[in-house]
């Protein structure tokens, strides 16, 4: 692809290089491309080329290598056109590269009035930096122009404009859907996305605004891992240490590090999917722990499906380690204890509505995973015992879960007696008691 673009650039050069009656006297090499040009036309605008010719030890310098010029052959061709006074289009896609190339070639107004540096600066200020989309397109193009694009403050100016306009759009949407601006941010590499999020935070953006941008970015950049809820169609995913997996892990960890401190800023379903991604990619413990803490804070909003997302691999055929679930439930219970103590209540005697809701969800969750042959009695029992007895008003769901587990596992009588101690017979409904008597 790069060679074909270089060939096209060289072919076009023959169409605009003049005066034709004067033979060209220098070949400029830019990567694989060679441009036959006139020294005097280039020297008129480029102080860098003038210095190369003057300082050369060769009496008549015939070849100049500019392979390090930002933007490569395509951008050099446009800079050369400018030297020849030939028109070309400055666009949001090429303005950053042209500005960097102009700096590299020292095409400043100090050397020649109205030179390429000032022309690109004027366009940059008047066109792309006047809109969110324009600033983001220029910022995206800077990914291949570092560190010069940063040295020239192009990156920072784009970040400042994009973050400011994103904040305005978040509060006063100018189009539908209202969160269109979050989609615009997804074209960026995570390092530039991080700069914009950091700038938005500094500008006082609300936690929910930051969360909205992060959710969209995660769902787009880790689409196959984060968006899929059921695991259908992802059986072919390789969990090994491939380059792609390493990149995805680094990306996930960067995204989690960007999350605002407000723990409840993200929907629990999104956090669960992100944590499952972290488990699958073997993310660093600090990353997974942060997600677990955020989930535990709002666990009362979790559904059984949310917890199942954390429990099974993407193909739905094998279970992950249940330690994440244990830590999340423990974190929530500990939080409820602290709240109860702070309010002067007795945690053992009375449970909050949130605790009761979590208890019901956990019991239903146990019923779903009870059929797994890989689930040991210690793990099943451990999860069940995390919920304080006072949090269960009725033990029907817990009894059903145990009943399913015992039938699947075919446990010895001694262990059956041990695990059934979790259930409080006084909290069973008449219907469950009747069914139990029939079975006996």
UniProtKB/TrEMBL annotation:
Domain of life: Eukaryota
Keyword Phosphoprotein: yes
UniProt keyword Phosphoprotein present: yes
Pathway noted in the entry: Protein modification; protein ubiquitination
Domain NPH3: 179-440
SUPFAM superfamilies the record matches: POZ domain
Keywords (A to Z) from UniProt: Phosphoprotein, Ubl conjugation pathway
Residues of the BTB domain: 24-92
InterPro entries xrefs: BTB/POZ_dom, NPH3/RPT2-like, NPH3_dom, SKP1/BTB/POZ_sf
Similarity remark: Belongs to the NPH3 family.
Listed name of the protein: Root phototropism 2
